[in-house]
Amino acid sequence: MISLYVFFFGLIFGSFSNVLALRTHIGKSVVFPGSECPQCQKALAWYENIPVVSFIALKGRCRSCRNRISFIYPLGELFCGGLFLAIYTKFDLSLASILFFSIAVFTAPYIYIDVKIHRLPNLFTLVLAVIELGVFGIKMYQDQSFENLTGLLRDPITALIIFGVIYVVTGSKGMGMGDVKLAPVLAFAAGLLGWQTTAAYLILSFYTAGLISVGLLLSKKASRKSRIPFGPFLLLGFWIAVFLSDSQIQWLVSFWQIKH
To answer: Which residues are paired to 43 by β-bridges?
Structure first.
């Protein structure tokens, strides 16, 4: 029963996630005006705004103008709902899961905006950083262990140094400052599961970016001069690492150490 509630709340936050993705990059308020048809700008009634259900009931069309509603809306809601359910299934309701829920809400907006305009909004990263400060404060109260707390800080600091050096060396051509800011925020979250998870997240981020970039070049969908956003790969690497088993993470880290 709790799983259903978690999935339902994930759908609701997925609806908000859609608003963040579609409005933030054009400088539009996420609060006003309320939900409306993107075609005729008709304000939506509450029963037209029920995640997924309304889309199905309206057969994917606006009730007023009958224009088609983009599939991005139900897909965004289902994506967030699915992530919420997967997080709860693996981590139950815990300190880590609360942080992961928060990252899940911003995942689709981060990816959409970075692909669209090559930016990772500072506000999103700031909100996650504030939540992580709260998590760190709770861990300080719970653990009373200096070693554990320094371990939590080690991972984001390491990620910040790695990405900061890349940014300086490549002159922002390799990645943007938004990536430099987001990387340690995700590293802190991954570090709640252990340093190996953080290592796996970083390894997977670079490997997936490399593989997909090569694929785009070979398929001629991108050229050597194309700007390929790195933010989506940070998030992809993070979520893969979070849901890998301990044995899979150990194998990945060991394999990488052997190769390097």
So the answer is: 36
